[in-house]
Write a structure and sequence with these properties.
Aldehyde Oxidoreductase, domain 4, 7-stranded mixed sheet, binds pterin cytosine dinucleotide, binds CU(I)-S-MO(VI)(=O)OH cluster, 808 residues
């Protein structure tokens, strides 16, 4: 067969790995053809809405639903009493705790679900919500986790024995009714010894405030129980649809094959859609009760007030070093505010997520981490928001501690980092708190970053600015924010990572059609990350068919192979690996078919881009397309017809992407307004599948980092009222606040991943928050600042300047 294309053209034609292929999803999304949960409209469908608690802590004396039921169009009002006979008034959380589905006797946070109204449309439901009469008796509110551990006010009466003693929780002993767990890693005594004997010790306390992922699309579900065939179909905003199916089966007793869970298009997840919410359960129960489909979609305030928040970590650190700046030990204690229920979305064995990556990118010989989880009268959740399971907190902690140590040592913070980096030759590197980092080349990335921004020049400019400020020539100070982060993404392996007992592998199934196109299904689910584009690229390179000829499907449990879903930037490290492995199975069979067709031995053909070529005879070949046709239409001795493969991939380790970020900021000390002059972000996520998609991920993650560092917050008052429950108060950056980002990269492949790829989706957030925060802190360093807490909104920045006497 004569070939018209050059090899280069054939490679380009594949649109495989490394190509900035345009996102195939966008044609749909930009033309209003997305299909989100709220687009699911079924005949006879009813609508649910919640009665929510106005109080943060109160006893429920009575609930009267008569007036609501009397409103025309109202079908049902469910309360905990109705769910109790089904055993569904409480549900398990992902963190081993349990949570009320509807308030059972008391409410524990403002916005808690009290009753579920089902009506003919959303507006009638909302009107009926107003007619439900709940009689509350207010109780003392506890919003401060440190107070909670001293208080006589018991929040979770279900977590205290009748004799008043405090039984163990899911993660071991508890020392107070409001205490959830103590979790420790590393060597406490050895660390304390090293710090006690050290030449230099820096100590700091910092609060990583409570915030919220706030995806554009709020959470929702549509449940449809077909009583004739016994099948339950559930559409919802699920980042892990298979897990939802299994949990729904275990809770409801409906056999798993009779449950179909579908995540349609998702309008941003950012971790907010990992957890299981009362609305999902109530829509299912309501559909079972009424016999028709029931939709529940929350509004913006409900999303901000009651679904998975992020952070709320009070961190206390000590870091020790020699006079020359070599770090000798790190000690960290965290008081973790989990709200009313421990509903953190972590792998089961990690109640503080992967916070124990808090030694960061540095070779720290000995370290200790202790975390105490605490109940307060706030919304449950935690972890979520581009976090890789508390890696945001860990990196913020270490990158602040480095800055504080640099102040103590009177040393340049860039140099202090260089002195302490884990060296290239040390990988795989065994960290003091347990992780084995797979690969890295930190110094190269750091040098590249410092050079790109002319770091020395910036420091000289900053010194001049300080002089000018002191001489009264300017009212603007200049900050240089640095951060160097190491991420940990791609949970499993199954042996140490599970969710509710379900091991964290992932999967891909490919079916090649006779004419040489394909459909591949995975256990993950895109929420905007572009999986339909990028997974096809991995497969294109592996199997030699153009990405344009490969359809990617995710999110339907009736068709997709079992997987653990998308969060913790695990899709590329785990499902991406499964895709490559499934592709290789296809190729192995295809090679046998090609050899048969070419009448040579299997070992005498080799794969080249899109074809199998007879070794040493390049004019003799069979393309993958030809092989696909033969697989279905030609009897091949010893081989089954067809060409399909499935891979379930249990990763041997996680992947450890890293990056170097630098932010240059000018701050007007009289208005407290920061101006971001420059933001440089170098990311290393190993082998890059789609550089354009990576860049998009980085822009998005950095913008969310800007939000968190510079203003975004879920704030409570002393009575447990949410002060920032609307987008008037909760800061979402717009094009106005967002700077031009400069992106850059190095490539250090993961040695254990089939294509060497590491995750990237969460990196920019993990590295970005400390970078923005460090820029603010650095601007005030010459004036005596050591640390101030985020969010650095205009008011707080002004206050910092004021406290430092800069307004005098
Ligand atoms: N990618 C790549 N090359 C790599 C690594 C990744 O081209 N070496 C591409 C992937 O093919 C994929 C994207 O980058 O299209 C992100 O991949 P990955 O880092 O594996 O992350 P996940 O797909 O698992 O996405 C999860 C991650 C998380 S946990 C949060 S939170 C977050 C994030 O993605 N939520 C997002 N980015 C988001 N982006 C959008 N638009 N919406 C969200 O809800
Ligand atoms: Cu932690 S937010 Mo993401 O893992 O879905």
């Amino acid at each position: 067969m004569k070939d018209e294309m050059t090899r280069e053209e054939r490679v380009a034609n594949l649109k495989g790995m490394g190509c900035s292929r345009k996102r195939v999803e966008d044609a749909r999304f930009t033309q209003g053809k997305g299909n989100y949960v709220d687009d699911v409209k079924l005949p006879g469908m009813l609508h649910g809405d919640f009665v929510r608690s106005p109080y943060a802590h109160a006893r429920i004396k009575s609930i009267n639903i008569d007036a609501a039921m009397a409103l025309p169009g109202v079908t049902a009002v469910l309360t905990a009493k109705d769910l109790e006979p089904l055993g569904l008034h409480w549900m398990p959380t992902l963190a081993g705790d349990k949570q009320m589905v509807l308030a059972d006797g008391k409410v524990l946070f403002q916005g808690q679900e009290v009753a579920f109204v089902v009506a003919s449309d959303r507006y009638v439901a909302a009107d009926a919500v107003e007619l439900v009469e709940v009689d509350y008796e207010e109780l003392e509110v506890v919003v401060d986790p440190f107070e909670a551990l001293k208080s006589d006010v018991v929040l979770r009466e279900d977590m205290v024995a009748e004799d008043g003693s405090v039984p163990n929780g899911a993660h071991g002993p508890r020392n107070h009714p409001n205490h959830i767990f103590t979790w420790e890693a590393g060597e406490k005594e050895a660390t304390e010894q090293v710090i006690g004997d050290a030449e230099v010790v820096a100590t700091e306390e910092m609060y990583y405030h409570r915030t919220h992922p706030c995806p554009l699309e709020t959470c929702g579900s549509v449940a449809s129980m077909d009583k004739v065939n016994g099948k339950l179909t559930l559409w919802g905003t699920f980042q892990a649809p298979h897990v939802v199916r299994t949990v729904a089966s275990l809770l409801s007793g409906i056999e798993e094959h009779n449950i179909r869970v579908i995540s349609p298009d998702i309008g941003g997840g950012f971790g907010n859609k990992v957890g299981v919410y009362p609305g999902y359960v109530c829509s299912i129960v309501a559909s079972i009760v009424t016999g028709v489909p029931v939709k529940w979609v929350e509004d913006r305030m409900e999303n901000l007030m009651s679904t998975a928040f992020a952070r709320d970590y009070w961190m206390k650190g000590q870091i020790s070093a020699t006079k020359e700046g070599k770090i000798t030990g790190l000690h960290c204690h965290v008081t973790a505010d989990h709200g009313a229920f421990d509903a953190c979305a972590d792998p089961t064995k990690f109640p503080a997520g992967f916070m124990n990556i808090c030694t960061g990118s540095y070779d720290i010989p000995v370290a200790y981490l202790g975390v105490d989880g605490v109940y307060t009268n706030k919304a449950p959740g935690g972890v979520s928001y581009r976090c890789s399971f508390r890696v945001t907190e860990a990196v913020y902690f270490i990158e602040r501690m480095i800055e504080v140590l640099a102040i103590k040592l009177n040393m340049d913070p860039a140099e202090l980092r260089s002195i302490n980096f884990i060296k290239k030759e040390q990988f795989p590197y065994q960290a003091a708190l347990g992780w084995e980092y797979d690969s890295g080349d930190y110094q190269t990335a750091w040098d590249k970053a410092l050079e790109a921004v002319d770091y020395k020049g910036l420091r000289a400019e900053q010194a001049q600015r300080v002089e000018d400020f002191k001489a009264g020539k300017t009212r603007k100070v200049m900050g240089i924010g640095l951060s160097f982060f190491t991420e940990i993404v791609g949970a499993g392996p199954v042996k140490n990572c599970d969710i509710l007992g379900m091991g964290m592998f992932d999967s891909c199934e490919i079916r090649i059609h006779p004419t040489g196109s394909a459909v591949a299904r995975l256990g993950t689910i895109s929420q905007g990350q572009g999986h339909a584009t990028t997974f096809a690229q991995i497969l294109a390179t592996e199997i030699g068919l153009s990405a344009e000829s490969i359809t990617i499907e995710e999110g339907d449990t009736d068709t997709a192979p079992y997987g653990l879903g998308t969060y913790g930037s695990r899709s590329t490290p785990v499902a991406g690996a499964a895709a490559a492995m499934a592709g290789r199975k296809i190729r192995a069979k295809a090679q046998m078919i090609a050899a048969y067709l070419l009448e040579v031995h299997d070992n005498d053909v080799e794969f080249d881009v899109d074809r199998f070529v007879v070794k040493g005879s390049p004019e003799q070949f069979k393309t993958m397309k030809e092989v696909a046709y033969a697989a279905y239409n030609q009897a091949i001795p010893g081989l089954e017809p067809g060409l399909e493969a499935v891979s379930y991939y249990d990763p041997p380790n996680m992947t450890y992407p890293f990056g170097a970020y630098i932010c240059v900021m000018d701050i007007d000390v009289d208005t407290g307004v920061p101006e971001i002059r420059r933001f440089y972000a170098l990311d290393d996520c190993g082998t890059r599948i789609n550089p354009m998609v990576i860049e998009g991920q980085i822009h998005g993650g950095l913008t969310e980092a800007l939000a968190v560092a510079l203003g975004q917050e879920i704030a409570y008052d002393d009575l447990g009222n949410v002060k920032t429950g609307t987008l008037m108060d909760f800061f979402l950056p717009t094009a106005w606040e967002v700077p031009n980002y400069e992106t850059d990269y190095t490539v250090t492949p993961s040695p254990h991943h089939p294509i060497g790829a590491k995750g990237v989706g969460e990196s920019p957030h993990v590295g970005g928050v400390p970078c923005f925060s460090n820029a603010v802190q650095d601007a005030f360093r010459p004036f005596g600042n050591t640390h101030t807490n985020m969010p650095h909104d205009h008011w707080r920045i002004w206050q910092t300047a004021n406290d430092l006497g800069m307004h005098d």
